[in-house]
Amino acid sequence: MNRFGFCKQEGPVFRIRDLNSPWRSVLHLGQRQMVGKSYQWEDDPETSTFSFLEKGRVRLLNLSETGKERIVLYIEPGCLFREIVLLHVSPSHPASLVALESCEVYNFPRTLLDDAEFVRHHPALMSNLVHSLGAKAGAFYSQITESVELDPQTQVCRYLHRLADERRTRVVNPGVSQSELALVLGLHRSTVCRIIRTLRDRGVLGHFTRCSLEILDREALAELCNPSEGGK
Fold first, then answer.
1. What is the pTM of this model?
2. How far apart are CA 17 and CA 153, in angstroms?
3. Is 53 a member of any domain?
4. Are residues 73 and 161 in the same domain?
5. CA–CA separation, 28 vs 48, rounded Å?
6. CA distances from 16 to 63, 98, 157 (A)
7. Does 1 have pLDDT greater than 50?
8. Cα Rg, the chain, nearest whole Å
9. Looking at the domain assignment, is residue 229 inside a domain?
10. According to the model, what pLDDT value does residue 86 have?
């Protein structure tokens, strides 16, 4: 956590919280909305609002041209969202936001960002918005770099190695199934299952369920995090 909030990388996915907490001072300018779990916001160039998350959790998903979904970002309270679509829309790479639980949001009119009077009276909020956009841009760049430069096996091994490195135990709780891991990494489920099977055959991993992952050979897993070792 820093003065601009919390932005943490968890595997290839980032989690943000309180990046825009100063915006709580102007919630009275927004319209309060309660949405249930699984509520979905779509990319829409004609959208007339952007939102502030007061309570709940939201997941940002990207859909590639080939139809593959990838989790990009977990958004927690104290953050603006849907502001990027006001500045840039990619019709070939649509994104969607999904409520992971019941959420309380405040919707601001898009005209607020063009309101000279609002900008003049709230320079700190404009500065905060710029810093949060920078944090998101950095997260997106990191994900793009890793997905482009690393082969699928290296991506899987790096994700699992981060888990093993954090827990320092033989058995860890991955918190994701193999199918969910594929979604996180933007890979096909069959690709991830094949890689996990290969790691088992090589004695690197034992069992792998959503709640339990057995790391049999940490050193071998660490070596496979190097792209040059991936195919060996």
1. 0.70
2. 30
3. yes
4. no
5. 17
6. 21, 15, 24
7. no
8. 20
9. no
10. 78
d(CA 47, CA 49): 6
Strand, coil or helix: what is 99?
Answer: strand
Range with the lowest mean pLDDT among 18-32, 112-126, 150-164?
150-164
Same domain, 20 and 113: yes
Do the beta carbons of residue 58 and residue 96 sit within 8 Å?
A: no
For residues 124-147, average pLDDT: 85
Query: Is residue 5 situated within a structural domain?
Result: no
What is the pLDDT, as a whole number, of residue 232?
47
Pair (106, 217) in one structural domain: no
Q: What is the CATH number of the domain that holds 171?
A: 1.10.10.10
CA distance 213 to 194: 16
Q: Residue 208's CB: how many other CB atoms inside 10 A?
A: 21
Residue 2 lies in a domain: no
157 and 56 within one domain: no
Residue 197 is inside which H or E element, if any? helix 189-201
What is the domain count for the chain? 2
Domain harbouring 107, CATH code: 2.60.120.10
C-alpha 97/C-alpha 47 separation (Å) is 14
Tokens of 40: 């979905």
Residues 192/185, Cβ–Cβ less than 8 Å: yes
Residue by residue, DSSP assigns 10-74 as: ETTEEEEESTTGGGGGGGGGSEEEEE-TT-EEE--TT--EEEEEEES-EEEEEE-TTS-EEEEEE
